[in-house]
Write a structure and sequence with these properties.
With 174 residues, the chain is an alpha+beta fold. The protein contains six helices and two strands. The chain binds zinc ion.
Length: 174
Amino acid sequence: MSSPLDHIFFPVAILLLFSKKLKLNPREVIALSFFAILPDIDVIFFGSNSISFHRVLFHNIFIVIIPLSFSILVKSYREVFGIICFYLTSHLILDMFTGGIFLFYPVYHDVFFARAELLLSHGSFVTTLEYGISNKIMNNGIGEPAISSENIAVALLLIICAAISVIVIHGKTE
Ligand SMILES: [Zn+2]
């Protein structure tokens, strides 16, 4: 399972990186970032006993189609709905590669999954490439940390970068 931090960090970093090229407002990119974890809200509302139901309700193509049609129809909010679309899509892609999602629920009730890995095993690299349709999610995140040790390391890196940029900006204005 991708952790909440992965779900927010990767798409926000990507959009901020391209914000100038795509003429996006960085404040909107940050403010709308909660949409990147919105599909997991079913766990909060229905509790952990609904884990078998998790990734059903909000992990399908239809939750992306709603903001997508708004971005086409409502021209004055195109940027906002476009960013929402990107965040929801990024969530679905991350989850598709980590267990699978019910891509066409409620029309079609099977899980679409993909797995691409490079493992170092006994001194040699082993590649895994799997994809297809299954009747259940491979791994629904039970027993995995919601925030991993790796996430903390990434957060530390972010803090270091933020501190350096503040020092640099401060140095320039003096
Ligand atoms: Zn999810």
